[in-house]
Amino acid sequence: MQKRQIPDTLTLEQRAAHAMNAIVGMSDGDYQDIPFFAANLMSNPANLTHGDWDYGSSHGRMIDAMILARHMSGETFGTEIEEKYRANLLTFFKEDGLSYRQTNPNFNWEPNANFIDQRAVILSLTTWYMSTGDPKVKETADKHVAALKRVAIKEKDVWYYPASEYKEGGWPSSNAILLRLAPDPAAFCGRLVMPLLKYHQLTGNEDALELCEFFSAMIVQRSGVFNADGSFNDSLAYRSGHFHTRLGTLDALARFGAFKGDAALISFVEKSYAWALTQCTTFGWTPGDMKEQAYEHETCSLVDLIATGITLAQSGYTKYWSVVEKFIRNHLAESQLLEMGWVKETDDLSKEVPGYITYRNIAQRTRGAFAGYSAPNDFCCNVNHGRGHTNDLQICCLGSGTRGLYMGWSNTITEKRGTVSVNFLLNRGSVWLDVESYLPHEGKLVLRVHQDIARLQVRIPEWAGFAKVRFTRELDGKIEEGKGNEPSRWVGEHFLLLGRAVAGEVITIEFPLSRRKTIENAIGQIFETEWRGDDVIGISPAGTEHPFYNGRKVFDKAPMREGALRRIENELVW
């Protein structure tokens, strides 16, 4: 691709390349290349630590993230670590088809097949097979799905798991089955529907489809996870309304509803999603739960919020394109660790414990990771409430954050039945056209069309209105002008209908920028945010550890750089 001057604004494929650095850097070369799970960056010196999530969960998320990040960015860095992650993952399977946690000399946990881990495992196997078509991966995944079905407790119209951990000999307690003492259904069943559905779509596996059907029925009809008004059940048995697992379940149900054409299921999701938004900030901070972890935002939760919003927008709730773009531009982008000067390091490695903790090159290794638990205004959450300060990085959030970049990137430009839609106003190359975004500096987009398009539409932010939207279309030296207040220009609430586009055409769209302030409530914490378009450019009170937002710079004219936007013929569809 020939380079040219393009806006130096948010480009998700660049962010994916940064994430690759952290994915590779989390590998522990002194301990079988098992990735570290967490980082404490506020500690002096900073450190990385292992935990019981190191196995199916961490490996599954890292494999999925590496495949997606490479696909987006073309980055070739770290292939040897990726191969080690893949090889490690396959060793965790036992003959029963499930993935088991391993022993660690520094901890007193026992091997078990944890059902949060199983979700990350089938997620990674699905992405792995999607990208390579490797029959050995499919064989492993088929056996895994068969095991997930075999160990499920099956009743007339619902299936479930009666515990969070499965042992080689079976479920730990037959009494739990008799009394239906299922653990949090969203955490251990609901979230599994998302990767299982994609695996069915990819391979036709009928066991995967059955699991989706009966788990979804259990969540919606029997579980009580979601209250009648769409709110989250905050009782202790339901993990105090844990946001990551609830939002992940809504993502799964939305996808399944879209797959089935089930309007009632989509409506069920939308009601709960709309309630969840009332608990989050407009820029994408989410609570951890509704009790002890309320102040601890996980990047995982934000990515679930992004994915669910995209499926709802695709299903007709077009207002959520705007909601999701704010999440991507703000808390997802801010949550990625790129500036490392504040991380305190040491040359004294005498306190290192293989398989437990390292102090080695922490800043270099974690650059590109995503926040584990962040505050609305700070990378580090150090409030007086809840559990106080915990992990600054978690590898699950690194995997989820990278997947969030992919969801934004892959849905910026979409095509359906001849209509090409520009949904997010972000830099993005594609086989149909390139989008060059001047936001938030200028209210301007440049579209460079590569092939004839039967019908082209571009979402315009709601704050831009329609009367002052202007566009020009240039082809072979001829220029046509158009306005947003012309009849029949708008579809789907906020999409500017441009109609037929021709290869070689350059379309420039301009609209006024919004400058405004909002008051945001994050579980009783009040913040004033300053917006320029869809970007937060200031927040008060400011953070104290690694402040968010107040370091953002905006100009009257967008800065430019030499570059090219990546175009891929066969994108991985997630």
Please tell me about this protein's structure.
The protein is of the alpha+beta class and 574 residues long. It is built from 15 helices and 25 strands. Helix 11 crosses helix 12 (299-314) and helix 13 crosses helix 15 (395-410). The chain is globular. InterPro entries: 6-hairpin_glycosidase_sf.
What would you say about this model in short?
This protein has 574 residues and is of the alpha+beta class.
What's the helix and strand layout?
Layout: E1 4-7, H1 12-25, E2 27-28, E3 34-35, E4 38-40, E5 47-49, H2 56-73, H3 79-91, E6 113-114, H4 115-132, H5 135-151, E7 153-154, E8 159-160, E9 165-166, H6 174-178, H7 185-188, H8 193-203, H9 206-223, H10 243-260, H11 263-279, H12 299-314, H13 319-334, E10 357-358, H14 362-366, E11 393-394, H15 395-410, E12 413-416, E13 419-422, E14 433-437, E15 444-449, E16 453-459, E17 470-475, E18 478-483, E19 490-491, E20 495-501, E21 506-510, E22 515-522, E23 525-532, E24 535-540, E25 560-563
Parallel strand pairs: 13-16
Antiparallel strand pairs: 1-25, 2-3, 4-5, 4-11, 5-10, 6-9, 7-8, 12-13, 14-15, 15-21, 16-20, 17-18, 17-21, 19-20, 22-23, 23-24
Helix pairs in contact: 1-2, 1-15, 2-3, 2-4, 2-15, 4-5, 4-8, 5-9, 8-9, 8-10, 10-11, 10-12, 11-12, 12-13, 12-15, 13-15
